[in-house]
From TrEMBL:
GO terms for molecular function: glycosyltransferase activity. It comes from Lasius platythorax. The lineage of its organism: Eukaryota, Metazoa, Ecdysozoa, Arthropoda, Hexapoda. One of its GO terms (cellular component) is cytoplasm. The keyword Glycosyltransferase applies. It is a single-pass membrane protein. The keyword Metal-binding does not apply. It holds the Pfam family Glyco_transf_92. Keywords: Glycosyltransferase, Membrane, Transferase, Transmembrane, Transmembrane helix. The chain crosses the membrane at residues 6-23. This is Glycosyltransferase family 92 protein.
């Protein structure tokens, strides 16, 4: 009888061992799948890879970020209008620049499809942000403004014009096309509006590095405010973005930025770009951010920005916009030895300046919820800890001292993905830009 008990125990032991091995195998498979989801993002953000994916569903997303086609148009010597949008019923909002004296006496006229003449609306203005510049003269204070025009017609507006006391002739007033934006949010994407950095000119290698890096982390809907980018670069990026047979999926939209002044404070310009960006992406993306070509959003733990936003939502860390802290990387510093031969500046420059808490940042960078920010008069802002995400700024430092630098290797966690980026390799390989080495 004992032999039977021992045999039974042996069989049970074997079965238990086999079951344990099967369980361990399935557990590892599940763990791998979860790691893949975590790495590639959930849902939506596309991680880069050197393979081809035929995904016609991507063609469904066409937000037409280039509408309306903007242009700075002069109303008076110190008053200009850039673009106009409709995000609320019976209301049009235009974006402009001027002095307080010039914006005080404006009237708006709204054009409709079935009306032969424009209809007079009710006009008011709201300052954009807090930045004001006095560099054009002691009595001149230039700033950005929302110009809000309300009307009573139930028809859809097609255009708007403004007249002032000194410019009462309607025949000579420019007419601005109106983009009627969706009334409800339909996408969870992230929009990146890109403005010219102070480091001019921006090289094509730096711009494609910027595009490929941010697409890597799911920030892949680019609206570029163009003030001098070569036609060749824009054409190639548009061609790549429209290639439905490629693995990468990003949008690349160019809008003109013929800003009328050269001496306006950069913070005023940035606030105006940011405002147009919010209107332009309204209800077409869930989040929007304005960056210069030399600014990189660096995630410290997550692999996709949308995952960080989802975590904020799950942990009730809600806000109308999130303020990101910045770190400055001086371009005069010695190259990182491992990546000294790379042309990607973010891999070569890995020492940031030790920030003095008493020195204010040049400007603030926010991740907005456009559908919330533009509708609320009081915006709730949450500052994000630097150990979650930060913005790396790569620029020439006037008072550079290597003794003030500290090592910051955070972005190197993306080094292999950056070097293997199919966007970067396709651009450099296909178009052979200066035969750039991307090691």
């Amino acid at each position: 009888m004992r032999k039977y008990y021992q045999a039974a125990l042996a069989v049970i032991a074997v079965i238990s061992l086999v079951s344990l091995l099967i369980y361990r195998h399935e557990y590892n498979r599940l763990r791998y799948v979860l790691e893949v989801f975590n790495y590639f993002g959930k849902p939506g953000p596309r991680r880069d890879a050197n393979c081809t994916s035929f995904n016609p569903m991507f063609t469904m997303f066409n937000a037409k970020f280039d509408e309306p086609i903007p242009s700075w148009q002069r109303l008076e010597d110190d008053l200009y209008i850039y673009s106009a949008y409709s995000i609320n019923n019976k209301e049009i909002r235009a974006i402009g620049l001027g002095t307080i004296n010039s914006v005080s006496n404006m009237q708006c006229l709204v054009f409709f499809e079935n009306e032969s003449k424009p209809i007079l609306g009710s006009s008011k203005f709201i300052p954009i942000g807090n930045a004001v510049v006095t560099s054009l003269g002691e009595n001149s204070r230039y700033g950005g403004y929302h110009f809000i025009c309300t009307y009573t017609s139930n028809e859809t507006p097609t255009g708007i014009t403004f007249v002032t006391k000194s410019n009462k002739y309607l025949n000579y007033a420019p007419i601005f096309p109106i983009k009627v934006q969706p009334r409800s949010l339909s996408h969870s994407r992230i929009g990146v509006c890109v403005m010219q950095s102070s480091m001019k000119p921006t090289q094509s290698a730096d711009m494609i590095g910027f595009i490929s890096f941010h697409a890597l982390i799911g920030m892949d809907n680019f609206v570029v405010y163009d003030s001098g980018i070569s036609n060749e670069f824009n054409s190639k990026l548009k061609e790549m973005a429209n290639d439905l047979t490629s693995f990468w999926k990003f949008t690349y939209t160019v809008v003109p930025w013929n800003f009328p002044f050269t001496e306006i404070d950069q913070n005023v310009i940035r606030e105006i770009v940011e405002t147009d960006c919010l209107y332009r992406t309204y209800n077409n993306v869930a989040y929007a951010i304005v960056l210069s070509w030399n600014e990189y959003v660096v995630l410290k733990y997550h692999h996709a920005m949308i995952d960080l936003m989802a975590d904020f939502k799950q942990t009730k860390l809600l806000a109308d916009r999130y303020k990101l802290k910045t770190a400055t990387f001086c371009t005069q510093q010695a190259d990182n030895k491992k990546y000294a031969n790379s042309t990607l500046i973010v891999l070569k420059k890995t020492k940031s300046e030790r920030r003095n808490v008493n020195i204010l940042e040049d400007h603030s960078i926010y991740i907005h919820k456009p559908h919330v920010t533009l509708q609320n008069s009081h915006i709730y802002t949450k500052e994000i800890r630097k150990d979650l995400v930060a913005v790396n700024q790569y620029k020439y430092c006037d008072s550079y001292k290597s003794s003030r630098e500290v090592e910051d290797f955070t972005i190197l966690r993306f080094a292999q993905d950056m070097q293997n980026s199919s966007i970067l390799r396709k651009y450099l390989g296909l178009y052979n830009v200066l035969d750039i080495d991307i090691k």
